[in-house]
Amino acid sequence: MELTKLTACKVADKIRKKEFSVPELTQAYLDRIGELNEKIGAYITVCKQDAGKQADNIQKKIDNNGELPLLAGIPAGISDNICTSGVLTSCGSRMLSNFVPPYDATAVKKLSQNGAVMLGKLNMDEFAMGSSNETSWYGQVKNPLDYGRVPGGSSGGAAAAVASQMACFALGSDTGGSVRLASSFCGVVGLKPTYGAVSRYGLVAFASSMDQIAPVTRDVADCAAVMNSIAGHDPLDSTSRDYGHEDYTLSLKSDVKGLKIGLPKEYFSGGIQKEVKEKVLDAAKVFESLGAEIEEISLPLLEYALPAYYIISSAEASSNLAQYDGIKYGYRTRQFEDLVDLYKKTRGEGFGEEVKRRILVGTYVLGAGNYDACYNKALKVKRMIFEEYQNAYQKVEVILVPTAPSTAFKIGEKTADLLDMYLNDVYTVPVNLAGLCAISVPCGFDSSGLPVGMQLIGKPYDEGTILRAAFTYEKYTGGNGGIDCGI
Amino acid sequence: MKSIPGEMEESTVEYEVVVGLEIHAELATKSKIYCGCTTEFGGEPNTHCCPGCIGMPGTLPVLNKAVVDYAIKAGLATNCEISSFSRQDRKHYFYPDLAKAYQISQCDYPLCRNGYLDIEVDGEKKRIGITRIHIEEDAGKLIHDESGNGTYVDYNRSGVPLIEIVTEPDMRSSAEVKAFFEKLKAILEYTAVSDCKMQEGSLRADINLSVRPKGQKEFGVRTEMKNLNSIRAIVRAVEFEAKRQILELEYGGVIERETRRWDDVKGESYSMRTKEDATDYRYMPDPDLYPIYVDQAWIEQIRATIPELPDDRKKRFISEFGIPEYDASIITASKTLADFFEAAAKDSKNAKAISNWVMGDLMKKLNDTGLEPSDIPFTPGNLTKLVSLIDENVISGKIAKQVFDIMWDTGEDPADIVEKKGLKVVTDTEAIRSVIIKVITANPKSVEDYKSGKTKAMGFLIGQVMRETKGKADPQAVNRLLKEELDKI
């Protein structure tokens, strides 16, 4: 039995039945990382010793027939922008290439309380800014299905690790589609929780009003299990909500009878890859055949979403990243004349090109003369997009769209044309702007054998419904949670 | 500023000075504004800190509700409207003491607005408008290595809650500025919103000042002076800056919109930066914090906790203790002083005398030593006793001053001091008479003067008797007996 092929839910069951031990499982993953990480580059840090210790502790509990937490013994990877006490948290940036936080993010703490074993920290676009994982200081992450292609981003390390069985599941972050885009490119499941559903404490901020920690898993059932463990109000995050989150595993029912699914026509036109459109429309037919009611709807504000997203996210990024000044922690330039020189050199050398670009844009749109014309206007668009979705949800319960306009593209293919690069996020950013929840699930392959992802978008705090729809689809089609990367 | 000749010719234009204040008061909450760290003053550098205080990535602010309570209290006590909706914004600038490189403050939607305080200068009452009061966080501080090897940052103060109180440009003289500032300070003390310890930086003021020819409607160009931390400095800075601006205009110069630093040692201000290099703070609503909604019930709950304020207390002191209005306003300007007075006066038959002692010797001691009323080394009860010792003729007024000095130094009970030092008034007629005879014998010239009608000589002889008795003789008895003895001659 290849242990690393099993989903988290199956592993949990087998561990309890003592079919294999947690140290055995953990070692299998560490071996796999040892074998593949050099080629794929998914991990920045591998926590061999700590993972081993954690595994031993959980096994002791199992041997003593103790009460086992939800994710007992499941090996997971954590994106490198999520703080882990005592372990490098670099955000894929030279700026934090020596930053070891003295605290755990709340989500990490919850995972650890739930018995998950942390294998290490995952590569990502620098400060989560990017769609292809080409901006990391620690190098490009490669798509496990085709090393010449990008894994999507910014949580490319998370998706690549899960797809290549270097982690049973992973936590990434989703500000504009990062987890969903990467999951779609790598053929795994990624869920962007409703803004406020998962605590942001310990998630290094990129765009605070949209950032959410997000699970990447092999299948929908795992996604529900991970959400169960990380969701809920946190007194350390004022924007996390006490919404009495349900047991998401209760949503794992194969039933979409009468479920009203909307297909917004704007999301199926323009620069979309033909095969992507076809696969998602095929999925709509599957839902219909299973008893769901498919309705064409219109969300015309889509064309304003991307500019609004880039203005708001860059503005917040310019503010959030101002604290990296070489004074308190992180990278500091070696030689400097005075304070201003220290700032200039530290930030000039510590940040990569894309991050600097966004800081500049953000600084510009927040400037006294531009605030109203840019930032304030973008906030209004954000509000309007939220309202447009609210109206749509008067008619339908779930909205089905492609996750990305294309499948995974070649490394370097879009670095020359930024607009082309940014367009990858066109279908994912409205969800972040409106604070909704959405899940990306694989829905087939294109002619090159690359996975296509579809996105089921739900109302705020209605993760249950999109999980149910996704689960039903996956069950019917067999999913590709067990895709063989041919590795 | 171009050089100005030493002497200024008599100006034909009469100028009016226009002042507005921005006052920062540190709130007396136990913990910081966005985390649970202590607000206690001092401490080893970086010991009152958590990852949030030093701006570590991933940390988030969570608003301390007590900060809003205190700010609402300050707003109500200064006649402000409390906003039902207010917002917290980020104000960006780079400086090592500002851990996150932005300060969380309030820009467009402050918690309190449209308030006022009434002041009185030379018998004239005046209303000074308060534009707004908002909450914000303090920054850390830089410590420069004395050997010049480097600069260190102490983030203990980072995140200590402040309110900023912004006034209208309603003040027209340093006296008005002083009156307003003292009144505001008293109110913040009375409501316990701030401990107002200016020497610890708990209360500091920025001065916005311009001048204009009297009668002109438009304001002149204003300058801003930052971080004045004593009333004396505020008054001097206003006077200096007004004079500087008038001189500048008189000599055909122009006032530049600029920020100036007051040097209290030199007694002058100098330019820090002009408007051209003013920072664009790039204010934006803080996405980590939701707006603050305050309903009427919350406001009423805070209103119920506001104690008697200085104006009401002053009125009550006048009617209850029969002290003059002037005394009452001075004493009630400081809550601790007023508390001290009230505790001493309520058990005394002579509240007026208590007030005289407080206004006179006690205030003088405080001024001379630079101590605060909270540092008074003896109890109010001791002052009550001192006054009754005088009133019961156990000691003379003159001796009382000695006793007071000893009380100040040792904190001892005045009755014990009198006993120990043998300071009781000598009422024994025969003892006094024998001293008088001694004095008369020793001063024949004065006796002669007295006899020839020079009444001044009487005073001299009384003085000699008091000196001989070390001031302890009952003055009335001395007067009577000396007359008797002189008449015998």
Structure, explained:
The complex is a heterodimer of chains A (487) and B (489). In chain A, helix 8 links the parallel strand 7 and strand 8. In chain A, 60% of the residues are buried. Chain A is globular, with a radius of gyration of 21 Å. An eleven-stranded mixed β-sheet of chain A has the order 1-3-2-4-6-5-10-11-9-7-8, sandwiched between helices. Chain A contains 15 helices and eleven strands. By secondary structure, chain A is of the alpha/beta class. Chain A has a domain at 3-253 and 466-477: Amidase signature (AS) enzymes (Alpha-Beta Complex), CATH 3.90.1300. Chain B is an alpha+beta fold and 489 residues long. Chain B has three domains: 15-300, no CATH class; 310-421, no CATH class; 429-488, Orthogonal Bundle (Arc Repressor Mutant, subunit A). In chain B, the strands form four sheets. Chain B has a nine-stranded mixed β-sheet with strand order 2-6-7-10-1-11-12-13-14. Chain B has a three-stranded antiparallel β-sheet with strand order 5-4-15, with no helix packed on it. In chain B, strands 3-16 form a two-stranded antiparallel ribbon. In chain B, a hairpin with a 6-residue loop joins strand 8 and strand 9 (151-154). The longest helix of chain B is centred in the middle third of the chain and has 20 residues, at 231-250. The N and C termini of chain B lie far apart (78 Å). Chain A binds chain B through residues 82-83, 89, 91, 96, 99, 101-103, 105, 200-205, 207-209, 235-239, 315-316, 318-319, 322-323, 325, 327-329, 339, 343, 363, 366-368, 371, 375, and chain B through 51, 54-63, 90, 92, 94, 96, 99-102, 153, 280, 282-284, 287-290.
Key structural traits:
heterodimer, A: 487 residues, alpha/beta, Amidase signature (AS) enzymes, eleven-stranded mixed β-sheet, 15 helices, 11 strands, 39% helix, B: 489 residues, alpha+beta, Arc Repressor Mutant, subunit A, 3 domains, nine-stranded mixed β-sheet, three-stranded antiparallel β-sheet, disordered N terminus
